[in-house]
Amino acid sequence: MHSTPSTGGDKDPSGSGSPHCTRTLIHPGKETLLWYDPWLINGPIAQSGLLIADALGRHAFERVEHILLDGQRWVNRTHDPALDDRWEEIQATKIHSRIQEDLVVWAPTSSGKFSLKSAWDVVRGGCERKEWYNLVWFPHSQPRFSFVCWVALWGRLPTRSLLARWGTVIDPTCYLCGNAVETTDHLLFECDFSSAVWREVLSLNGFNRNPLGTWKDVVEWLVSHFNGGSLLGSVRKFSFISSVYRLWQERNARAHLKRPTINCDGSVKGGFGGYGAIGRNYRGEPVFALAGGIQESDVVCMELHAIRSGLQRARVFNLSQVQVRSDSQVAIQMVVGTYKVPCGVLWLVEEICELRDSFRSCTFIHHVREINCCADYLAGYTSVAQIIHFDLHNLPLILSEMIQNDAKGKVYSRM
Fold it and tell me: 413, exposed or middle or buried, with CB in 10 Å at 0-12, 13-18, 19+?
């Protein structure tokens, strides 16, 4: 059995610092190369600078059995100085009489069996566990949340300030607020958008306080307050890593998509139907807002009217890429073709599909009602058969406040 040395495990005495991950258990030594295999604890005998040549009595394919007498004890028959230099180590090497042939084992584990965890530990080397380790890695966490949070805590998120230093972007302005340089500290804590998120997260976890002064201060405080293995401790830690992940996800959505969104909603009250739609750019600023009403008692029909009107208005503003959001899962499924369309609204769905095909990119997603408040407000705005296109400089005060809250990342509780 010919095994070659590899990284990990016991250190290489040659001074290279390269460790060996495999070791060979000897008996009877017929399968292991004397000079090249890592059968000694400090690695192969043939270290850097040692010449292996037949003229010196050192045969490249010589086996360990050459220095074993009757498979029971070590003997240096040739008194080779290279063997003499390692003789104490050779004599200290156990001869495993209970095994039938030489056996290669994985040195970093006590069982001798290979595992990815032990290989990773060898590759990364020893280091102190960070004080925030249990805040990020804990049972029942979501791996992708933990990973993004781990990268953030190491300061390795590719923010615009970091990308600017690398020369890949020119403008380092924060995607979430547009008011400051996008560093990790700013993006995840100092930004108005993320600060509003953290205030809500702290409040939902029972801490009625404003966030601390810096991202480092926040993490230190969280380590001492979001701890323990209880259900409450796990929920608090999960709220932290999920918030970091969602902030980064929102940042990336604005950075890479930059597509306007159209929030749509429909409602029926007393046999009269209302619908509303609001289009916003990636910063959350309104592009258009409309409200309408017709004599109709089918709420799904009104949801479809809202989607159609929103897409029609988007075409007026020459938007080429949009994402349509509705709190009606049935309406979304009808449009994307996963729900059978009733005859009464077939014409509406067909018109929506025609409008969809006129955009370079048009996607439809379902949003829960609690985060669709602007469109919900517009759907109940009028009680007469009409359509209103709002002046963005003279919006109703309540609607303006809702738009500002959404742009700042307000968290809405699910009813």
Answer: exposed
DSSP assigned state of 130:
P
42 residue type, one letter = N
Residue 130 tokens read as 């960070």
- Which 8-state DSSP code applies to residue 284? S
DSSP state letter for 287: E
| Residue 34: C-alpha distances to residues 20, 26, 67 (Å) | 16, 11, 9
Task: Give the SS3 label for residue 132.
Answer: coil
Check whether the bond before 28 is cis (ω within 30° of 0): yes
- Taking only the tens place, the pLDDT of each residue in 331-352 is 999 999 999 999 999 999 999 9
Amino acid in the structure at residue 170: I
- The residue with tokens 């509780």 is 413
Phi, psi at 95, each rounded to 5°: -95, 115
Report how far residue 369's alpha carbon sits from residue 380's, in angstroms, rounded to the nearest whole number. Answer: 14
- Structure pTM? 0.48
Q: Is 324 helix (H, G, I), strand (E, B) or coil?
A: strand
What gap in Å lies between CA 45 and CA 37, rounded to an integer?
8
Q: Is residue 3 part of a domain?
A: no
Q: Pick the closest to residue 215 from 233, 191, 180 (CA basis).
A: 191
Q: Which of 124, 144, 164 is the last residue of a domain?
A: 124
Residue 10 inside a domain? The answer is: no
Q: Same domain for 185 and 283?
A: no
Mean pLDDT (10-residue bins), the chain, 415 residues: 40 44 82 88 82 87 88 84 89 86 85 85 77 91 94 92 81 86 91 88 85 78 88 92 92 77 94 95 90 95 97 94 92 93 95 94 84 92 95 95 83 57
Q: Which domain holds residue 240?
A: 133-257
User: Is residue 4 one of the residues assigned to a domain?
Assistant: no
Residue 383 lies in a domain: yes
Task: Tell me which residue has tokens 């405080």.
Answer: 221
Which of 288, 392, 281, 304 shows the shortest CA–CA distance to 356?
A: 304
Neighbours of 8 (CB within 10 A): 18
- The total number of structural domains that make up the chain: 3
